[in-house]
Amino acid sequence: MTEFLKIESVAKRFGDFAAINGVSLTLPADRLTAIIGPNGAGKTTLINLATGALFPDSGTMHFKGEAITRLPIHRRIHKGLSRSFQIMNIFARLSVLQNILVPVLSRRGRAGMPFSKMEREQEAVTEARRILGEIGLLDEQNDPAGELSHGDQRLLELGIAIAPAPELCFLDEPSSGLTPVERARVLDLIRKLSAARHTTFVIVEHDMDVVFSLADWIVVMNRGQVLAEGPPAEIRENRAVREIYLGEELTA
Fold it and tell me: In this structure, what CATH number is given to the domain that contains residue 168?
C-alpha cells in the first residue's frame, strides 16, 4: 500500500488538557480506515490537525512525502486532502447544485465569483451534476439545500467533500443523526465512492455497527493517544479496547 499520510509524535494541548498526546500514525492509500474511541479521545482534534484547522504544538505531518505540518487548509485541499464535519456544514440557502459547484469551481481556480456568467462554466456544471448523480441527489439539484431531509443533507455534505477530487478524505461521523434506512444509504455510498473514485476514506465514528461493517482497518484512540490499531477482527478481541467500551458494543 502507498503511504499517504504520516503523522509523527504529534501533540496538541488546550490549556492543561492534552487533546493529542504524542500520536504517531500512518494512513496508507486504498484502505478504508475507521478511527474510534470514547468521547474526548481526540478523534476530531486529530482530523483538525491533519486537515489544517489546527496546527500541532509539536510533531510533524507528511502527505505523499511532503511536509504539511504548517500548511493552511486551502493548500492542503489543493494537494488532495478533504473532509466532512460532525456538525452539518452545507450552504442552506444555496441550491443543491450550487453547493457542489462551490468546491468544483474553487478547484478550477474560479472561487472569486463562483456563480457569475455560469453559461461559461458548463464543464463545471456538468461535473457537479455528475457528482449529484453519484450521491443520488440529481433530481433535487434546484432545491434549496436547507429544505432537504437530514439524510439527504448528509449525502450532500459527502458530495461537497468529494467535489475537490481528494485523494484522502476524512469523514467525521457521517452517520450521525440518521435513521437506519438513511444510514444504510450513506454507508453504501461510501463503499461505492471508495471503489469507483479511488479515494481513500478515513471515517471517525461512534456507531460500532458502521465501523465493523465498513472499515478495513481500525485505529482506537483513548485520552489523546493511539491505544490499538488493526483489522476489525483483531480490534474486536482486543482486551484493552473492550475495557474502554465496557464490552457492550464490541461483543454485539
Answer: 3.40.50.300
